[in-house]
């Protein structure tokens, strides 16, 4: 795509965003007014659905399509990281690849701590996802914990072990399946708080793993001497 075409796309998108922002801003209720249509609807609807808390009712029922947009933004960000950080032609990986990296020289205490915290952190992430519908949030936060937990292996100084336990194709498939499942739930089965919370946790966790995997690959890329 040429520079002129990129600027054209940017201009069209910016103009459309400006129009939508102006329309939304002019229809905002007056500050300090007594008319709160959104607040007057959220609590009755949450009670009618028997949702454990109002926040979960808003995220996964009344505004499920908004949450869907947030999940797709995260998915697009992870895909963008995969594309932008891909190995370009000028960067040639060493013939041994990532397996040329053995365990780093770190203190034994740090290595042991990383390995001991790994199962604890994974269990914490699963717990947050599983109980997310009972409290505000849950799926997204738990997914972040799960996606970050396995990288304790890297902090313990063992990148080859990290590469073995997080096969990128599997997490790519998991992210796609979770995003697709959330689309189906948001469009036709809104209100299924438990299921939607679970697939959010899966999608977020896979997205974080993919993004961090590409960051690590780029940072540890071996360049041949020119």
Q: Which regions contain 5 or more consecutive residues with pLDDT less than 50? A: 92-100, 222-226
Which word captures the global form?
globular
The count of DSSP E runs of length 2 or more, i.e. the number of strands, is 0
**Alpha-beta content class:** mainly alpha
What percent of residues adopt helix (DSSP H or I)?
Answer: over 70%
Rg to the nearest angstrom? 22 Å
H-E order = HHHHHHHHHH
Separation of the first and last Cα atoms: 30 Å
Q: What does the main sheet amount to? A: none
Mean pLDDT: 78
**Discrete helix count:** 10
Provide the number of structural domains: 1
Beta-sheet strand percentage? under 5%
InterPro entries: CPA3_antiporter_subunitB, MnhB
Transmembrane segments: 72-88, 109-134, 140-157, 169-189, 195-216
Membrane topology: Multi-pass membrane protein
Keywords: Cell membrane, Membrane, Transmembrane, Transmembrane helix
